[in-house]
Amino acid sequence: MPKILGSGAEATVYLNNGDVIKQRSRKSYRHELIDLHLRNTRTRKEAKILKALEKHGFAPRLIGQKDNDLMMEYIDGIQLKVLLDKNPKLASLVGKNLTIMHDDGMIHGDLTTSNMILADVKSTDRKSDDKKPKGNELKDNKAKDKRLYFIDFGLSFNSHKIEDKAVDIHLFKQALESKHYKIADSAYREFIKAYNPKDKKEILGRLAIVEQRGRYKEKI
């Protein structure tokens, strides 16, 4: 019997026979045909992002897509939100993953520590490691390979715009300040040290403008 892993405004996520099923929920306030079109379009977009990330090895593998349902690989690990307060250095892995995404022109759109899982690297991944970028792994005390996986690409999209990359970082910084306020500064420093896309200077410059804009809105 399917087990519910999570449920939100947009979708319900199930574990079924070892695979993850993401089912986008119907919205009764929208016209039926419009609602179906929107769900199918967003599902196809998410599937495209997952397929593009497959070569990097830090997102769930896409198994299949039908209408508004996605079937994905189940990542068996621990959410970063549970681990980060005791080990802020793990934020460096976020920086390394996001570097790869941004250089490839992909925006996550929902960078919270709930959407990141630290898990053992599967043996199948180890065999193909030579084909994947290095650096987004670590060794735990038992010397097992660990990798930080990003999940939930429902708000992700393709973009090379500096503004979009800066907003991605801004959302992650806000998540740190909200959920991990005791170690937010140290975790963010680890993130920034590891975040090294080709246009880092321009992105961080835009980030300062985005943050200033946010502070201005708060005063209104």
Describe the protein in words:
The chain is α+β, with helices and mostly antiparallel strands and 220 residues long. The protein has 2 domains: 3-73, Phosphorylase Kinase, domain 1 (2-Layer Sandwich), CATH 3.30.200; 77-219, Transferase(Phosphotransferase) domain 1 (Transferase(Phosphotransferase), domain 1). The protein is built from 7 helices and 11 strands. The chain has helices at residues 32-53, 80-83, 91-103, 123-127, 162-179, 184-194, 200-219, and strands spanning 3-7, 11-16, 19-24, 62-66, 69-73, 77-79, 106-107, 116-120, 137-139, 145-150, 157-158. The strands form 3 sheets. It has a 5-stranded antiparallel beta sheet with strand order 1-2-3-5-4, with helices on one face. Strand 9 and strand 10 (145-150) form a beta hairpin. The radius of gyration is 18 Å and the shape is globular.
List keywords for this structure.
four-stranded antiparallel sheet, 220 residues, alpha+beta, globular, Phosphorylase Kinase, domain 1, 11 strands, Transferase(Phosphotransferase), domain 1, five-stranded antiparallel sheet
